[in-house]
Amino acid sequence: MSSGGGTVERLAELIRGSHCTVALTGAGISVPSGIPDFRSPGTGLWENVDPMEVAHIDVFRRDPRRFWSYYRPRFGMLSDKQPNGAHAALAELESRGMLDAVVTQNIDRLHHKAGSRRVIEVHGTIETSSCLDCGKSYTLDRVEALFDAEGVARCDDCGGAVKPDVVLFGELLPAQAIDEAAALAARAELLLCVGSSLEVYPVAGLPSITCSAGGRVAIVTKGPTPYDGQADVRLDGDVVDELQSLLEAL
Ligand code: ZN
Fold first, then answer.
1. 172-214: pLDDT as tens digits
2. DSSP one-letter string for 11-65
3. Which of 85, 82, 126 is nearest to 106 (CA)?
4. What is the pTM of this model?
5. Known catalytic residue at 87
6. Which residues surround ligand 1, an ion (CB under 5 A)?
7. Contact call for residues 215 and 183 (beta carbons, < 8 A)
8. Which of the chain's ends, N or C, has fewer CB atoms near its CB within 10 Å?
């Protein structure tokens, strides 16, 4: 299924020869699971709203009702989604000892659901939400019961507004996850980028770290990325097809 002729085999060869392989995933790996990439215009939930305006920490603090009216249906939509063959392929690589970790921009938990064990979520996760006043943490299945009549999730201890543990626009990225991702990128002999346009920081900086440290970069995603010229392998097909072909080639 590769567009570059024999490149899946080349990728398999690189993985077999690498002592440390790290995957880097973005929205494109979850599109086959029915989760739209919000950067693609005109896709369902995002159609009539600018996420950069609503999913902003200032909006949350000023008007949590507005934030939640936008985010609550998204929560419900995401919690039902299931991992696809690309998530499964990365979990399989890890279980075969061929993949050290997954660094992801995604907040959808699908790597965990697929069975990946070491997952670094640089934009946070919907798995938990926290009260901004007292810090109490709630798992996803408990959040729905917290909504008040106005549609704001309220802490059952102190009444403070509860926010998903995802990085909103205007918020700092989680330092520990960012440090871990950078350390993994520096150590990687192979950085396998899947479903990311590699344009959004911090992940946009990780391939440079790998290359500077002497590692190789492979890219499996539709559409161009800033690193296409530096990649040892560049696959442009469907992420599920490409990674399933990769498993067969290993
Ligand atoms: Zn609280």
1. 889 999 999 999 999 999 999 999 999 888 889 999 999 999 9
2. HHHHHHH-S-EEEEE-GGGTGGGT---TTSTT-GGGTTS-HHHHSBHHHHHH-HH
3. 126
4. 0.91
5. no
6. 131, 133-134, 136, 155, 157-158, 160
7. no
8. N
